[in-house]
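Hello forum,

I keep getting stuck at the same step: I have a sequence, I want structure tokens, and every attempt I make locally crashes halfway through. Rather than fight my setup again tonight, could one of you with a working pipeline run this one for me? It's a single chain of 475 residues.
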Amino acid sequence: MPAPRSLYAIVPPTGLYVREDRCQTPLAKFSTIAPRPPIDLMYAAAAFEAAGWKATLVDCPAEGIDAAELERRVRAMQPDAVVLSCTTQTVGDDLATAAMVKRVAPQALTIAKGAHFNVLDVEELTRHPTLDVALREEIEETCLEIGGGRPLADVAGITRRTDDGRVVRNPSRPFTRDLDALPFPARHLTRNDLYVRPDTGAPQTTVITNRGCPHRCTYCLANQVAGLANRYRSVENVLTELRECIERHGITSFLFRSDLFTQNGAWVRRLCEAILDSGLAISWACNSRVDTIDAETLRWMRRAGCWIAAFGVESGDQATLDRLQKNARVEDARRAVALCRAAGIKSSVYLLMGLPWDTHESLTDLIAFAIDLDPDIVEFFYPYPFPGTPLQRELVELGLLAPGEVPKESYAYPAVPTRTLSREQLAAYRAAGLRSFYLRPAKIARTLLGTRSPTELRNYVRAGWTQLRQLRAGT
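Reply #2:
Ran it on my machine without issues. Output:
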């Protein structure tokens, strides 16, 4: 019997990022965001394994593997295919790995995934002749078909290079309706100890509970990568994955990743009830919207192990929220933070700084709003002009971004100026905002008094010290 074909799933050594299609956050300058397992690659690897392949996965930034060591491994393995995880900000450097693979293992089919290829697929395959295939839309069924030997010409959801060198964009793939039918992520291929809950240091993994968001925020990739329909897995299917994580990998801390976890309150309550009935002793984090939670659902979430919920509040100015097509009210944010505090769940709030119309006055007001809102955690993000988003088109129309420009700076440092503020001025406002929020004596006292163990206290102090050093350095 011939040996199974081999796949090498690779996070390239091009920086520590959250490399999920919707979320492409560089982690070097964020003490409030922990590294996450490369869940999309783990799904891809599981799909190839389901098709009979032998898969290997490496997260170079998390494991401390440089380009030379990765080349040595590829040369030794001689894989039949590689899948590379790319972000928009690092795509050029990421695809240098495809060139390396073709040099040392020329037989390998080079495949890349990332939201970037939903829009700039043809451009990147044209620019990088050593890339054979770009995955678009949701990738699991696509990987099952490629792994199963279906001719690439017949695989939906890819852009490919033909034998004669042409770049061809195959038809798009519909979003997966039955998420329960997908194989669980290949956690047996990852070093699960590298991904931990930031406050306790316990191993933490990502569980995707649902996909899709009905809202059309101008800066967000959710619609592009997951569609407008919120597709939930069954409660039983999620519970089976949780049991596998506990029993096979010893993981009891989870990030429930979704585009909008709490849209269907009845489903959330059923999941919480099932967790409680199962006796699983777990802790978990989730995202939410400020207008999709209520006291009853939060009580269920707390009982079932939820310790923190994250909200994209974005602004304390209603006109700004309306301009972003956020479809939320400022008072909803105040209510959400208060409800979380009453339920015993920490609140993490994201605010956007550096929108095209931002001024000295609007950013001063934003910082004041963060202090008045007073969540447990706040993070100021600079919006990033992801290709295909309304925000990107607006920035080009305003002359703040050149057509086709793909900035490398993102989230922690402004990608573009505003109409009245330079990037350097914007960077100073983020540092000032974080100092103003976190260095209040009452805030420091509440954070330290709320810790539940020496380990948690030590981690909070370490994170605070790291953040303070970065702010003093002007980063």
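Residues 299 and 343 are 6 Å apart (CA to CA). If your local run keeps crashing, start a new thread with the error log.
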